[in-house]
Amino acid sequence: MRCPFCQSDDTKVLDSRQIEEGTAIRRRRECDVCTKRFTTYERYEDFQLIVVKKDGRREPFSRHKLLSGLNKACEKRPVSTEQLETMVTDIEREMRDINDREVPSELIGEAVMKKLFAADEIAYIRFASVYRQFKDIQKFMEELNGLVKRRK
Fold first, then answer.
1. pTM higher than 0.90
2. Any idea where the ATP-cone domain is (predicted)?
3. Are 15 and 67 in contact (CB under 8 A)?
4. Fewest beta carbons within 10 Å, which of 25, 28, 78, 96?
5. Same domain? 26 vs 52
């Protein structure tokens, strides 16, 4: 593995551990030349999941994009990075369990909403406001009232 700092090929693995319920391996590495440390991840390669957007466009499923959206919704909220990673893994697994290479973006969005609702209500509302594209305060209030009803 090439060092991202000095580009040397001389690196060693310091620690390896399974993550994402055994579907990936996290490796802590150190460069023999510059002695800086970095982390790599190893996953098995599965079929490419394609997301079908609302406008009909298709794009490859991106764990990074999903995690980025979750991070924005959970910014300054008491939701750990580990919880977010678990959400992404669970959502990806749910989408793959559908047994179809193409998944509508709405399915992913609803899965995210379900996970965020369980994790943090403020993050849920943040995500919902972007995902559902509220056009006015009335639609936003309907979502909040639905949240209050589900809470009881």
1. no
2. 49-139
3. no
4. 78
5. no
